[in-house]
């Protein structure tokens, strides 16, 4: 067993965990933070996306012990204009992927603001324009079974604009 201490949504937490427990399972099963969803449990769908020290992380792929001493923000700790934009732009349907989509969008907007390029960025020497193609590329790690992609892109573009 390992003692894992994290700041989750602004609160100091600790848990005694087996070293092979994923961050997602630590959050959901040991800390009672159920916003991140277990979709594929393989890192392919993005439903479990959280922010660790402000960066996007697919929480099913990392071990909780890797995040000892770190700041973890889940949808429960997010207060961002993109949440209201998702509602205004119909960026959700069933809602299962929405916590991960929103956490990813918040992280993606911060990455873009910092000038980080993506695979869709034509010129890496300048801050890329946040076009629809750029948003879609940057959000490509988050899948929506309902197909609410147009609303998701519109919500992110609204906040970025």
From TrEMBL:
SUPFAM superfamilies named in the record: 2Fe-2S ferredoxin-like (SSF54292), CO dehydrogenase ISP C-domain like (SSF47741)
Coiled coil region boundaries: none
Organism listed in the record: Actinophytocola gossypii
Alphabetical UniProt keywords: Iron, Metal-binding, Oxidoreductase
Residue stretches making up the 2Fe-2S ferredoxin-type domain: 2-78
Protein name listed in UniProt: 2Fe-2S iron-sulfur cluster binding domain-containing protein
Ligase in keyword set: no
Pfam families: Fer2, Fer2_2
This protein's record includes keyword Metal-binding: yes
